[in-house]
Amino acid sequence: MTKMLLQVLSSASLLALSLGMPAWAQGVGTDIGTLDREAAERAFPRPPYSPPAGRNFPARPFFGDTHLHTSFSMDAGAFGARLTPRDGYRFAKGEELTASSGQRVKLARPLDFLVVADHSDNMGFFPQLFAGKPEMLADPTGRRWYDMIQTGKGADAAIEIIVSFSQGTFPKALASLPGSSAYRSAWQETIKAAEETNDPGHFTAFIGYEWTSNTGGNNLHRNVIFRDNGMKAGLVEPFTTLKPLGSDNPRDLWKWLAAYEEKTGGDVLAIAHNGNLSNGRMFPMIESFTGQPVDREYSESRARWERLYEATQIKGDGEAHPFLSPNDEFANFEKWDKGNLDLSELKKPEMLEYEYARSGLKLGLKLEQDLGTNPYKFGMIGSTDAHTGLATADEDNYFGKTSAMEPSPERTSHAFIKSEKATIYDWETSASGYAAVWATENTREALFDAMERRETYATTGPRMLVRFFGGWDFEPADAQSRSPAVAGYQKGVPMGGDLRNAPPGRSPGFLVAALKDPIGANLDRIQIVKGWLTGDGRLEEKVYDVVWADADRRKLGVDGKLPPVGNTVNVANAAWTNTIGDPELITLWRDPEFNPAQRAFYYARVLEIPTPRWTAYDAKYFGVQMPREVPTSIQERAYTSPIWYTPG
Amino acid sequence: MRLLKEPLLHFVAIGGLLFASHAAINPGGGRGANTAPAIHLTAADAEWLKEMWTRQWRRPPTDEELRSLVADHLKEEVLAREARALELDVGDTVVRRRLAQKMTFLLDDTIRTAEPPEAELRTLYEMRPDLVRAAARVSFSQVFFHREQGDDRARISLAALSNAAALPIDHGDRLLLGDTFADQDEQALANLFGADFARKVMTLPVGQWSGPVESGYGLHLIKVTDAPPSRALPFTEVRERLAHEWRRERQETANAQVYEGLLRKYRLVAGAAVRPLLGSRANLAEGQP
């Protein structure tokens, strides 16, 4: 029966495809006719008196999670997750639910969007019985079941059907009639959940899945996100890693993405994560699959499909590593560097360069010089990767990585991964992160398009607002105006964009601003991280403190370092005060060491003042003593997508 | 899982596997060939493998790929049979959950309920304001003041702004969120400014400057320009949502009924320690000696 049902599905796919095509084709190649001066003036009238009117740049960021697992992921189910994709979306929308551990749980604030990204491997095919097609009604048994279902006796019909299955008396006629039955997968169920909860303008439920390439325990995972609705996403089954149907090589995933777009006219992207657990394989110069140097085809494909990188999440922060950035005193943050994902192989220092976002961005400059395309030209987002159906990234509301890790007095002492070589404890998991997206409205299309243009930033949980623009013509007054974003968009490019054509003698200016989370902690400082490729082929980086809070009492030291902002965290009470730091920071910064001949990238990192880590909230709530090595305060942060400078 | 690491088990399994493959590949020869279990590979199987491949890769497999698919299918079948023979599926949580999930899907789909009668939708329309009503919305301008000395400055500006000729831009401090907000509901405002601020703003009078209202950022003077109240959406607009809810409710009841029916197929035998945990089902359970 399986085979037949698949045929049915695929012929249905063809039908939907042929119906879908014309609508999709309409937007392309429209003839707009000749644009004369008069018409142009009508089309572009002088700006209205009211400054915000007619503006269609993004006015606010939308916060969400692009990486949530539910019980449909086999590993999540094995750890006791009971919540379904539908539950995951409802929770993100702000509803109160009962978690798999039986505790009531609710977000302090709803998220704006969510991608349920269950593992494609073993998401599998699940049989469904369907109803009502003429062929089915022609069969007496089918007719009877159909009538039972229609008259509300579905429950009785179900039992009859199941019995007939188990006794092998299911009518052959029904099993073999085209269109009479269909196979449904957990995938179809996932799509349905997204379609039902998607509410344009209020909450976006993206369709997605995770492609979990993990050969040898080395994490090359990618989340796949669809811009499209279920009509298109439902035409495919998620790409898996198990051979021969699937593949663990990202090149094959990219082929699958291309085939999907080509066949359906749809739009998809992929987001990699946890390079920190890839043991040197996430941002390769030499491909682990072939042992050959990364080539042009790899670069072009990766640049096309992977425009974002998930730089922070529960399994550790992936922005920077202290070994690679010894002068960056904030690089040692929620670090997971003991080994690969299953700790079957320990970390060696020479792997780190190919694992962390900042380093990947640098390697990309070099590859772009050699190959003409930068494969690692990615923007930044954060997400949870929670396997609980609960997208919780708040320190005081952290429901853990798996359902077995939901709040309990013991959870901080459990081992999360243990091998003969090393152990990672539950307390090392990080209550992080979310994706912030500067979209014009809260819809699948607008959010997806913003992701593709990399107008995004990662946060480790708090919902701070961060603006970052680069341009040649900014003036100090732009940072003083009431609406710096207007100057940002008019005179520059936003995060994720490109700078070229350096005017002679001019350094790029960066207009950067941050506003604290309305219910969160004050800000410590904004930094700009620059990476560049020197004339003799060396990759360099530097972190600049560009604006900071409490400026009346904090001055740069002779070593160029800014004194710490202080720490108000009361660990015993899991409390802090906003008596230090500032709610808002803004400045215009020019690169003092700009060399127009050198490729470079710039991104902003925003630090909050220290606040209690989730372990402090656990210690207080459960009255337990944390082991000495467990950190109890944290400086939450945001990383913007870079702006790239390319000579010539 | 530990069992899987037992070398002895590997030995037994591999031995059995070799035997089974041998029997499958040489059906005519060898001792006991007639009694060996058969693995049937039909044209339909090959067709199905092709179909699976095509759905995944969006193109048919090459001959070589198809050969590898068939080889893999055979191997999987042999291993799966041997695993079942060794009862490796018994006590495996993943297998058990997977089966339960399959059953749930099967039930869900079978029970899929009929089209809701119009009258019942009309009733839902009356009974479920949460599905029918659009939230109250508000459009407003704001003037922001940092908290330090914000109170006094805000009061002075509030008085000045009562003069219609006064320009808001001459007052207060910059807020990165902006100064005008159109068509926001309380939840959206709560996300931007905090819940207390949002609640307060929803109650302010239209057409005049009020405040200061406190937020997580500081103090705000607010002039609400438009405040359309919460309203019931027309039936046609929410019909789909109501139908959805109707089906969901029916499905929940039906699922519960089916489960009860299936449960009745079994005798439930529970130890004394477990009985109290069974809640209302405790009286269905027989005691364990």
From TrEMBL, chain B:
Residue intervals passing through the bilayer: none
Gene3D superfamilies: 3.10.50.40
UniProt xrefs under SUPFAM superfamilies: FKBP-like
Top-rank taxon, per record: Bacteria
Family annotation (InterPro entries): PPIase_dom_sf, PPIase_PpiC
Signal peptide: none
Domain PpiC: 116-226
Keywords: Isomerase, Rotamase
GO molecular function, one term: peptidyl-prolyl cis-trans isomerase activity
PROSITE patterns in alphabetical order: PPIC_PPIASE_2
Protein name as it appears in the record: Parvulin-like PPIase
Organism: Microvirga aerophila
